User: Fold this.
Amino acid sequence: MPNIDLTQLLAGFLVLLVSLTVHEAAHAWSADRLGDSTARMLGRLTLNPAAHVDPIGTILFPLIAMATNLPIIGWAKPVPVNPGALRPNWRQKFMVIAAAGPASNLVLALVAAVALRVVAPVDATGDLIAISVVNRIEPLLRLAVYINVLLAVFNMVPVPPLDGGNVLAGLLTGPLANAYDRLRPYGFLILYGLMLTGLLSSVISPPARVLLSWLL
Assistant:
C-alpha cells in the first residue's frame, strides 16, 4: 500500500472541491444568463461547495484516487437545465451551458499558472520567510493547474454524460443530432468501456500534456 501524505491528500481534495464547485457554478450562471432560472431557484447559483457536493463523485472517489496515486478525477451534482426555458435555439444554448464548466476549469488553471510565475522569483530574494511561504504555496498551485486541466479535458470527451457530449449535441443538426440523442441512454456504458479498455486515458493524455506544457 502506498504511503499517504495526509497534508497532500487534504490539499488535493480542497483544490478538487473548489474546482468542481466553480465548474458547476459556471453551468448554473450561464444557464441563468441564457434564460433558464432552474439552477438559481434550486440554490445552485453559488460558490458554496455544499450546494454541489456529490458524496461519491466529490468525496469518496477522489479520496480513493489520491490515496492510491490514480489520476485525480471527480464530479459534483449535475446542474439541472430545462431546455424548454432556453427556446429558441435551445441546442446551441445548451451547448454554451455545457462548455461553461470546462471553460471555468481552464480559467482556474490559467490563474494558478500565472500565480506560479509571480511567486517563483521569490526564491531569489533570500528572504527565508518568503521562501518558506512559497515552498508551501507552489505545490498547491501546481496541483491546481494539474487538476483543472484534467477536469477540463476529461469533461470535454464527446460522450453524452459529459459536457463534451452536450457540446457535440449542440453542434449536430438533423438526422445526425437525432442519432446522437439515441446514444444518450448508453453514454455511461460507453464511458465505462473507454475507462476499462484504457482508451479514455489515451484520449485524455495527449491534450492534457499539451496544456500542461504550456501552463507549466
Q: What stands out?
A: The two ends are 30 Å apart (CA to CA). Residues 90-119 form the longest helix (30 residues).
